[in-house]
Structures are given as C-alpha cells and as structure tokens.
Design goal:
Length: 185
C-alpha cells in the first residue's frame, strides 16, 4: 500500500502537470523533453544497449568470479605449501633433536671411556712404580748383602789371619778345594 501511494505521489507531482497550457503540444517543453527521453530510451533498446551493458556486467562478473576462484586456488595452494613447510620444519627439528641427543650420548660415552682409560693409565703407572720400588728394594738388599759379605770376609780374614798358622791354612785350602770339587761334579 505504501509503495502504491509513493508511486501515485510521484506521477501526480511530475513537472508535466505543473506546466501551463496543453501538455501534448510542441510548444510545451515538458512534452518535448518527455518525448526526447522516450526516444532516447527506444534508441537504447534498438541498439541493444541494455543487453550490451548486461553482457559487460556479466563479463565483469565472470572476470571477478574467475579472479575469486584463482585467489581461492592460490590460497589453497599456499595452505598446502605452508603445511608442507611446517611438516618439513617439524621433521628437521626432530632430526636436530635426535642429533643433539646422540651427540650428548656420545659425549657421555666418551667421558666414561676417558675415565676408564685414565684409571687404566693410573693403574699401569702405579704397577710400574711398584715394580721400580721392588727392583730398587731388591737392589738395595743385594747391595747390603754384598757389603755384609765383604765385611764378613774381611772380618773372617782378620780373625783367621790372627789365629791361623801356615799348616792350618793349607789344610783349609785343601778342604775348600775338595768341597768345590765335590759340588761341581
């Protein structure tokens, strides 16, 4: 109802009704303008301007639609590439974590091996030092024995020289030769 009232008000308030004199006369400028406008509209329809404009609008709409489709395809491709790069980045991060963990394990193993090697080296050095000490001790004992023998021989020589006669010395020499001969054969 409201639309009908608005349409009636627009047609009733046209400039054609406001003009003086008969409306359908060539002297009435409102009639001439109305006729020119109708003629213009007819020329537009005759040359199919509305269909050309519609075609242009349709073509533009198709162009926009194709651009939207292309943008959607590019977006999907970008999302696929992004997902691929994220997956690759995750794989690279996992690989880097594995490498770091492996390097830590190798470092711990190398430290343990170095500790064992150091303990073995210390044990070898201690054994070598103990061998040197034992050798030095044996050498010292032998040296002390040799010195004791030398002192004992000198003391025995002095004792024997004081209390022994020539005949007793000859008897001792003969007994020693016989004992050596018995032990050698």
């Amino acid at each position: 109802m409201r639309k009908l009232a608005t349409l009636f008000a627009l047609t009733a308030a046209t400039p054609a009704f406001a003009a003086s004199g008969p409306f359908f006369s060539l002297t009435n400028t409102d009639f001439i303008v109305t006729m020119a406008f109708i003629l213009f509209i007819l020329v537009l329809f005759y040359f199919k301007v509305p269909s050309l404009l519609g075609g242009m609008l349709d073509k533009r709409a198709e162009g926009i639609q194709s651009e939207l489709d292309e943008a959607r395809a590019l977006r999907e491709e970008a999302q696929t590439i992004l997902a691929s790069y994220e997956r690759k980045q995750k794989e690279v991060q996992e690989q880097a974590d594995r490498i770091v963990a492996q390097a830590k394990d190798e470092a711990v193993a190398a430290a343990e091996q170095a500790k064992l090697d150091l303990q073995a080296s210390i044990a070898r050095r201690l054994a070598a030092a103990e061998d040197q000490i034992a050798s030095a001790e044996a050498s010292a004992v032998k040296e002390v024995r040799d010195q004791a023998i030398t002192v004992a021989v000198a003391a025995a020589d002095a004792v024997i020289a004081q209390g022994m006669t020539a005949t007793d010395g000859n008897k001792l020499i003969d007994a020693a030769i016989a004992e050596v001969d018995a032990k050698l054969h």
